[in-house]
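Lecture notes, unit on binding sites. The following record was shown on slide 14. It pairs a sequence with fe (iii) ion.
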Amino acid sequence: MPITKTTEKVHVNDRKIINGKDADVVQLYPMKHTFAWEAYNVSNANHWLPTEIGMQKDIEQWKSTSVLTPEERTALETVLGFFTTADSIAANNLVLATYKHVTSPECRLYLLRQAYEEAIHTHAYQYIVESLGLDEAKLFNMYRENEAIYNKDSFILSFNEGIFDPSFKTGTLAADQKFLENVIVFSLIMEGIFFYSSFAVMFGFQRQNKMMGAAEEIQYIMRDESQHLNFGINMVNAIKEEQPELWTAEFQQHIIDLIKKAVVLEYTYAQTVFPRGIFGMNAENFKQYIEYIADRRLIRISLPMQYHVENPFPWMSEAVDLSKEKNFFETRVTEYKTGGTLEW
Ligand code: FE
């Protein structure tokens, strides 16, 4: 957009997540969406790089024939097969769809940081694959070969259709709902549901003192992803507040239906990754865990819970429980600032 020469100042009430009035997206102030600025600062304080974590012990364990069972090897490879392309899918959506249509400069600032973190995550998977000497061609192509991963990714990528179209513009009810649907799908489903069976498997390894380097990489990634999810939820709730007309009963039901579909895709994936269970966690536990997670996502955007189940993996809640998330970050940010280490 060309700039107009004027002494007239931008008013905070004209700021909106999308469709900001004559959006001047280069003036960080007046700042309205302070959650984005806070998220940006937390992310900077949490900065990390994959190569800071040693992989020597993992390499020895992977080479040894007596540490990992064949099922555990398959599970690790399959989980990596999902991860290796997942963050690239997330990054593409941020850069090619979300960023363009967001008119809040502080949200854009955070999106730049988030996009960099997705790159760091892809680097982390590359680092694990390379360190362990795994077959890159097999793992990076798994999203097209493994049926359950393919089904999850196809579902997610279908929400790029339309919004990746260069002529897509916000400003109509249908377009704004499409944008909101995209944010919900990528934040709550991709980052908030589709990563979680894989996170649970990696923490399963960690609880057995196996593949601790790889698990630590994933812990850092999960910390970032909780922040991405939190930011996405804050954006969704801000859009709902700024444009309540988008949040129709029909749209709400549509979102509930999408989340229910995603839950089936995710537990089907979990069941095919470890058909006979892993580390004492079985298919039924994973189904219930995913349902539990989905309910938590729903209530964060004021939609009704659908499953009402207990968390079958209470040990995961220490690390993942989003109800503690605010506190979680508030209590630990300072430590990260000084030490940069990960303590749970
Ligand atoms: Fe992310």
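Take-home: Confidence is low (pLDDT under 50) at residues 321-339.
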